[in-house]
Specification:
Strand order of the largest sheet: 1-2
Structural class: mainly alpha
Shape: elongated
Helix content: 40-55%
Radius of gyration: 24 Å
Strand content: under 5%
Number of domains: 2
Length: 430
């Protein structure tokens, strides 16, 4: 089950605490009825152990129950509770550390030892819950407890996990999630991923995708947690915010899927807004985070501009980008995306079809500049294979695929390159 400004772990507001009621893994002492078989007896013993604060023994008994009957949702649920308590983790601690002065990431001020306690504990319990989720979503449990039952708790765990990963990326605070009150839309700026090693950046996206899956499993109880991460969103009616949150979660899950399906090309999808050609087509930050192919090269959401450049117009049914603008003071004031010698040109920011419905009908989500950069299919009609050859050919002292080859075998923005442009392409890549 899987599935900026520097990063700022937003406050988890007090409303979250009101969501964490009833059957959830942060509640330490639920009672369980016992039946006569061994599995139920072991589960009963596990809950008695939790009430006695004997968490290691509880985890042992729940593990034995799972061994006896791996379909027992109560055993998986109990094991998650026991592991949480073994590491001293609870929702109220996470609420406390999620917010400090100026709503900054509280994990930034923790000692390395404290953070490591959280990291190991959260990672351990998530591994347990992920196994349960996999079984629950593939009809391999008794369904007495479902993933939707603990989705809110799981969301907090995953978002805390993201905060810890972010701590590794930067000691500064900033916002990954943005809420535009004027347009009632949510956006994510992935630029902070630049500061993480590739594997940790992928882990961050996948943790967010897991949170997104939790939101989809139980939106009524889980979306308030997401709302608390977006200051200013409290003025938006619940139904509108829920629709927006679900739209953004679908896009996060899509990004995580791209990473899972293309592990050797992970940097193509996470090197957002870095001002260089990441995917080997010669274009620079040409794609938009919208789940569509914006340049016609056969790939989706690669070599992206930051999410903060997006201006959405309400279009929930299609969950589509309606328009774009050049962010003031950004590198895009001077960046020549298609390398045709003209920066900040409208063709790099306007869609061929202005309305999302029209783009859907035409099955064409390209920006206008893509009309002037036709791509050449590689072997077997594959548009990506030759791009990958160019992307990994980064040693200027040993060039394997020269500019003429790239123009003939890839096309795209390489068609606009001069020899000087080609030389500059290699700078800073190794």
């Amino acid at each position: 089950m899987r599935r900026t400004k520097h990063v700022h772990f937003f406050m988890i507001a007090a409303i979250v605490a009101t969501c964490i009621v009833g059957c959830n893994i942060f509640n330490p002492s639920n009672q369980e009825r016992v039946d006569d078989d061994d599995t139920d007896a072991l589960i009963y013993e596990g809950y008695i152990d939790i009430q006695r604060a004997e968490y290691t023994r509880a985890a042992y008994n729940f593990s034995r129950a799972i061994h006896s009957d791996s379909a027992s949702s109560r055993a998986w649920y109990g094991l998650a509770k026991a592991v949480l308590n073994q590491y001293g983790l609870n929702v109220f601690e996470m609420l406390k550390y999620a917010k400090t002065e100026n709503n900054t990431n509280g994990f930034m001020k923790m000692s390395d030892i404290e953070v490591e306690k959280y990291r190991v504990g959260i990672d351990t319990v998530i591994k347990v819950i992920d196994q349960f989720i996999d079984r629950d979503t593939t009809d391999r449990t008794d369904k007495k407890i479902r993933f939707s039952t603990i989705a809110n708790s799981y969301t907090i765990l995953q978002l805390a996990n993201v905060a810890i990963l972010i701590r590794k990326a930067t000691s500064n605070t900033a916002e990954m999630f943005n809420y535009d009150v004027s347009s009632n839309q949510i956006a994510i700026d992935w630029s902070s991923l630049h500061n993480l090693p590739t594997n940790e950046a992928v882990e961050t996206v996948n943790a967010l995708a897991s949170s997104a899956q939790a939101l989809k499993a139980d939106p009524d109880n889980t979306f308030p947690i997401f709302r608390s991460f977006l200051p200013g969103s409290d003025t938006v009616p619940d139904d509108e915010f829920k629709d927006g949150a679900l739209a953004i979660t679908d896009q996060i899950i899509e990004m995580s899927s791209n990473l899972d399906e293309n592990p050797d090309r992970a940097s193509v999808f996470i090197s957002v807004g870095n001002g260089i050609d990441d995917d080997g087509d010669g274009c620079v930050d040409e794609e938009i985070w919208d789940g569509q192919d914006n340049d016609g090269d056969g790939e989706v959401d690669e070599d992206q501009r930051p999410g903060s450049v997006l201006v959405f117009k309400t279009h929930w049914a299609k969950r589509a980008v309606a328009s774009l603008k050049i962010p003031e003071g950004s590198i895009y004031e001077t960046l020549d995306i298609d390398r045709n010698g003209i920066a900040k040109e409208p063709n790099e920011w306007e869609f061929l079809f202005a309305e999302p419905d029209d783009r859907d009908a035409a099955k064409d989500h390209r920006l206008k500049f893509a009309m002037n950069i036709p791509f050449v299919p590689g072997p077997n009609g594959d548009f990506i294979q030759n791009k990958e050859l160019a992307r990994t050919d980064t040693d200027i002292n040993n060039i394997r695929y020269d500019l003429a080859w790239r123009k003939a075998n890839i096309g795209g923005c390489w068609l606009n390159y001069t020899d000087a442009d080609f030389f500059n392409w290699f700078q800073g890549r190794n």
